[in-house]
Amino acid sequence: MQAQSRVDVFEQIFLVFLGLGTLVGIVVVTYTLYNAYKYRDDSGRTSDADTPTLGELPTGGEGGKKLFLSFGLSAIIVISLVVWTYGMLLYVEDPGNDIPQEDAIEVDVTGEGFAWFFDYENGASSTSTMTVPENTPVWVNVTGGDVWHTFGISEQRVKADAIPGETDETWFMSGEAGETYEIECFELCGPGHTQMTGTVEVVEQEEFDQFLEEEAPEDEGNSSEGENASDGGNASDGGNTSDGGNATDGGNASDDGNATDSENGTEANASNESNGGDA
Ligand SMILES: [Cu+2]
């Protein structure tokens, strides 16, 4: 089977449902109109033999043949649709070997504080703009840094929960270089929810490689770049700058200073009073 994108799959499901729905609608409405015409009251009725009376069960339908046929056909249509759609959605969940994994790239996505953060395989990172090479399967591992968000790219039929402590995996197929897709947050997450947008930028493979190189962490190892990724982990040690919060303790020191000032003040007053007393 030719590898299909999510867009192809959902378009196909939509068209099949639209087509079958229209077909069934046409059959039902036509049959209804046909019977309305066939059994119309043309006031040429001579016998009331066909008229049902109260409490009488309608006969006809040739021993339930029509009923059986209509129920049977409906069941076949509905069950086939359920099975087929389920199969298509399984493909969307995991395209398996239909999408060659060696061609795919992987991007870690974190939704936090009303922005999207992207980490690439070589340790490169970006904010708000996700750069991807053209015509490539892109696997995204989505998580949340603070509260629940949802990573969504409508144009690519992508929607994945961004929940702290959990990773939701999904994928899409990038298009031609130059295309851009809008990223939105689909989980009401706070006052910055509506501004929590971003862009997917599709670029040529060369440009993408260049982007990775430029954004890569300092060390320029070749195949050991995977280890550099762990250096990126050290970057989170930069979080120690939050120890700078201890600086506020220094602020307490100045409070102490105030306390001594006020003490000095009272002492000074006291000594003034005592001076006054002497006078
Ligand atoms: Cu959000």
From TrEMBL:
Domain Cytochrome oxidase subunit II copper A binding: 102-214
Bias type Acidic residues, positions: 211-222
Residue stretches spanning the membrane: 12-34, 67-92
Renumbered residue ranges of the record's region Disordered: 211-279
Family note: Belongs to the cytochrome c oxidase subunit 2 family.
Highest taxon above the source species: Archaea
Entries under Pfam families matching the protein: COX2
Alphabetic keyword roster: Copper, Electron transport, Membrane, Metal-binding, Respiratory chain, Transmembrane, Transmembrane helix, Transport
Source organism of the structure: Natronococcus jeotgali DSM 18795
Record protein name field: Cytochrome c oxidase, subunit II
GO terms, molecular function: copper ion binding; cytochrome-c oxidase activity; oxidoreductase activity
Compositionally biased residues, Polar residues: 223-279
